[in-house]
Sequence to fold (466 residues):
Amino acid sequence: MKLTFRGAARTVTGSMHEIQTGHRRLLLDCGMYQGRRKEAAERNRHFPFAPAEVDALLLSHAHIDHSGNLPNLTSNGFGGPIFTTAATRDLCASMLADSAFIQEKDAEFMNRRNSRRRRVIEELTSEPVEPLYTINDAKAAMEQFRDVDMHSRTEVLPGVFSTTHEAGHMLGSTFLELELEGKKLLFSGDIGRCCLPIIRDPERACAADILIMESTYGDRLHQPMMHAKDKLAHIINTTARRGGKIIAPAFAVGRTQQIVLMIHELIHEGKISEIPVFVDSPLAVNVTEAFRKHTECYDVETNAFLDNGDDPFGFRRLRYIRDVEESKALNDVRVPCIILSASGMAEAGRVLHHLRNNVGDPRNTVLITGFQAENTLGRKLLDGEKEVNIFGEPVRVRAEVLKINELSGHADQQELLAWMEPLVKTVKHVFLVHGEYTQQQALAAAMLERYNIKATIPERGESFTV
Ligand SMILES: [Zn+2]
Fold:
């Protein structure tokens, strides 16, 4: 078989790998590449192969960097099945529609700006910008999804079988065991961690000849998970005591639901007072519905909630907000409360309004709940900048800025090495993907030292016959 690494090669986004076996082609994931605007647009728009020539696609999980370019693939001619779990399918329905909405808004904005410029510079004749894909494209792509149960073995192409395993990374996430040409190939997708709220722990790898493995945190060791809930209780109690609000930028998918569940547990345990909690993000509201529906993905603790007749993602003082007017009305809340809102790095979305209205008050807390990339507003707040720009205006920061960074959904170096241990005796080729090059080199070095395995770090477009 021939493997070609089409994306997430020496970088973390745009996951897409191609397997050619005989005259058939199989794709693993079809993620959106995120990076510099022009380069990203170019890379996402043009596939380095004819989409109509792909026969089937296997999707490891719903994150946009794994699924986000699917509507573009299907609208450009891919007509085959997309195999994934039911939870991933339902998450994708909301997430791809949301992504399409952003693409459409983006194109509209660019066209308005270009037409203003055109009026000034007569000779400027740029073509209108088309969205990468539309909401209709996203809807159409969903028609090609085919549900596979966790641990089921499915014939995805004639003579090619795929078995899904729990990856413990997000709701419905899998790693894939493929059987083809008398060999076993394992594709890790993204590997999660033990003890994450809501979802089950990752299963360990199984024996295989070829491994394609993520390496996001190939050079990192995480802090233990158990501190996160205690930290959250402390932050809520301290802020409430001084009469402040907590503004938490949180990723709409996964992180919001984890924090909601943790607050619910803390109320149950009597560790925090019952202050109002608002989830203010239409995507988070839709995605929470998928979380509610897919109880088959829950861990023991979350199932215990259900067994008591409790809704893990609903309690007396919690309100989900879709409506814009209701969102604006949160400005008038004068009592201590918690507002969870996207985006997770405070780059866009409703959280910007809440930050603008609240970072100036020293009674308030900005709670950072995940990784913050360089140059994002979330990162600037975390770095302690005393003045930040929000909607183009300078705003003084007087609120306390705190973070909970224990909830990462990716295994660290030691966890990745432990995960792959069951296959070290059988594996002949290891390819590292989905990581920055420095992280990949560190993981490759650790793998060589511990298992005497020499991993390959492919470049984008590089092919291997195995
Ligand atoms: Zn992921």
The chain has two domains: 2-220+409-465, 227-403. The chain has a mean pLDDT of 94. The two ends are 6 Å apart (CA to CA). The first strand starts at residue 2 and ends at 7.
